[in-house]
Design a protein that fits this description.
This protein has 9 helices and no strands. By secondary structure, it is mainly α. The N and C termini lie far apart (112 Å). It has 2 domains: 2-83; 90-180, Tetratricopeptide repeat domain (Serine Threonine Protein Phosphatase 5, Tetratricopeptide repeat), CATH 1.25.40. α4 (90-102) runs antiparallel to α5, α4 (90-102) runs parallel beside α6 (124-136) and α5 runs antiparallel to α6.
């Protein structure tokens, strides 16, 4: 009997380890679901909900997910700070967008231009800025649309665009040339 107890004693810790491992594997799908939900909240700009879920995920996340969760937490934090920015005028917001553009933060600059145009659709300078951004990111169709709108609102922008080095990638496009150098009847 004594031998039977000795052989059963080592099994209990293994059984406990197996139960713990099983509990961890049950938690894995929940952690992954929370992670996916947090990503969706982040995409929907529900940053507080996303951060709370990322915090929850971080407690039980497998090691290969921890660093990614921390990165997304910092993205949420940065977006929260950025969304709290306020501008006195659309021109001030434009200046900020141009600084982002010059720093190479194209998506952040796009958000600013889009926000200006949503509030002020006839803002010639915002259309011009959006044209610059689209030209720099290789989106020539959108660049031409915004530049056409900007010049329609303020014909003096035609002259500015002729010498603007940010439109260098568009100089071979005949539509760009026609827009900047229209035939005079």
């Amino acid at each position: 009997m004594h031998e039977a107890r000795e052989t059963s004693a080592p099994r209990r810790p293994r059984a406990a380890a197996v139960k713990a491992k099983a509990a961890g594997s049950d938690a894995q799908p929940r952690v992954l679901q929370d992670y996916q939900n947090a990503l969706q909240f982040m995409q929907d700009n529900k940053l507080d909900k996303a951060r709370a879920l990322f915090d929850k995920v971080l407690r039980d996340a497998p090691p290969e997910l921890v660093e990614r969760v921390r990165i997304y937490q910092s993205v949420c934090e940065r977006r929260s700070t950025r969304s709290s920015l306020s501008f006195a005028t659309p021109e001030e917001q434009y200046d900020y967008a141009i600084s982002l553009l010059n720093a190479g933060s194209f998506e952040d600059a796009r958000e600013q231009f889009d926000a200006i145009l949503a509030a002020h659709p006839d803002s010639d300078f915002a259309h011009y800025g959006a044209a610059l951004l689209n030209s720099m990111t290789g989106q020539n169709e959108e660049a031409l649309e915004h530049l056409t709108r900007a010049i329609g609102l303020n014909p003096a922008l035609r002259i500015q665009a002729r010498t603007d080095p940010d439109f260098i990638d568009m100089v071979d496009d005949p539509r760009f040339t026609e827009l900047l150098y229209p035939e005079v009847p």
